[in-house]
Each structure stands twice: as structure tokens, then as C-alpha cells.
Design a protein that fits this description.
- By secondary structure, this protein is α/β, with parallel strands linked by helices.
- The chain has a single domain, classed as Rossmann fold.
- The chain contains 6 helices and 5 strands; from the N terminus they run αββαβααβαβα.
- The chain has a 5-stranded parallel β-sheet with strand order 1-2-5-3-4.
- The longest helix has 18 residues.
């Protein structure tokens, strides 16, 4: 429980479209869902410093938090190559040092949502928790 609380406390989220509205320090994590075509909530300087993890590089490059800085040339394409799938699979590290700033730019992938839903559902069935709902009734 303590580990979970620490993880939650170390995570900053942003869903507002106020340019530069989120500031980060060493070891910070920002989870952003910037899907606006013209602005984002993170200052470009943070993106340049951070290890950026995306659900999908092509999708985020067109609609994510990194979209505008990439198209303006303010952020190098090489800065946005790590995907969440590779981190979860253990093929890439999430954070490489304790003080590294990490940004997760979530644009959403249905396949990831379904995979997570399956795990949660199976766990609920195994532990006999939750309730079954007939959405078609």
C-alpha cells in the first residue's frame, strides 16, 4: 500500500490545454494526454530534458503532447522513440536514473485498454470481487 501511495504521489497528470502549465523537477513523472492540435501542457524545455514514453510513436506525433514541438522542430524525432509496450515488456527501461524526468504521453490505444481490461476482469473473477452487469438488459 505504501509503495502504491508513493507511486501515485510521484505522478503528475495534465489534461488541461494551458501551454506550459506543468513544471517538473529531478525524478518527476508527468503523465499527459495532450491530444490538442496546437498546444500542450508541458514546456518544451521539459520535453527536451525528459525520457519520453508514448503508447504509439506515429499516433502521438500527430495528436499527442509531442505533436506541436515535433512539427515546429523544437523537439528531435529521436527523443520520442520509446513505447509503453517496450517498457512493460522489459525491452526498454522506463527511468534510467533516479533523478531522470520521465513523461508518458498517452494518446490511447484500444489494444492496450483491452489487454488491461482482460487482466482486471480475470483478477476480479479469481478473487470473487465486483459485480456482473448485463449492459444489454
Amino acid at each position: 500500500m505504501l509503495r502504491r501511495a508513493v507511486l501515485i504521489a510521484a505522478l503528475a497528470g495534465c489534461t488541461a490545454y494551458q501551454p506550459g502549465s506543468l513544471r517538473q523537477g529531478p525524478g518527476s513523472e508527468a503523465a499527459v494526454s495532450g491530444q490538442h492540435a496546437t498546444v500542450g501542457c508541458l514546456d518544451v524545455a521539459i520535453l527536451r530534458e525528459a525520457r519520453i514514453v508514448l503508447d504509439d510513436v506515429a499516433q502521438a506525433s500527430e495528436s499527442g503532447e509531442v505533436n506541436v514541438p515535433l512539427h515546429r522542430g523544437d523537439l528531435a524525432r529521436s527523443a520520442v522513440g520509446v513505447t509503453l509496450g517496450r517498457v512493460v515488456a522489459g525491452l526498454e527501461p522506463g527511468r534510467r536514473t533516479d533523478d531522470e524526468i520521465t513523461v508518458f504521453d498517452s494518446t490511447g490505444l484500444a489494444v492496450q485498454d483491452l489487454a488491461l481490461a482482460r487482466v482486471v476482469y480475470r483478477r476480479a473473477v479469481e478473487e470473487n470481487v465486483g459485480r456482473e452487469v448485463d449492459f444489454l438488459a
